[in-house]
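Weekly structure sync, notes
Attendees: PL, DS, HV (note-taker this week)

Item 1: Biosis of lysosomal organelles complex 1 subunit 6
DS walked through the input record. Source organism listed as Phocoena sinus. Sequence as pasted into the shared doc:
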Amino acid sequence: MLDINALFTEAKHYHAKLVNIRKEMLMLHEKTSKLKKRALKLQQKRQKEELEREQQREKEFEREKQLTAKPAKRM
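Item 1 (cont.): predicted structure, written out as C-alpha cells:
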C-alpha cells in the first residue's frame, strides 16, 4: 500500500512540474510572438523612413539640377 501511495505522490509531483513547464512555454511563446511582431513593425518603419530619405535626396538632386546655370544658346 505504501508503494502505491508513493507512486501516486510522485505522479502528482511530476504532473505539477509538467503543468508548470507548459505554462512557462505558453508564456514564452506569447512573449516571442509579441517581440517578432514588434521587430517587424520596426523593420517596416525603418524601411519607410529610408525610402522617404531616398525620395527626398532625389528631389533635392533634381532641384539642384534645375537650378544649375545653363549656357545660353547663340543663334
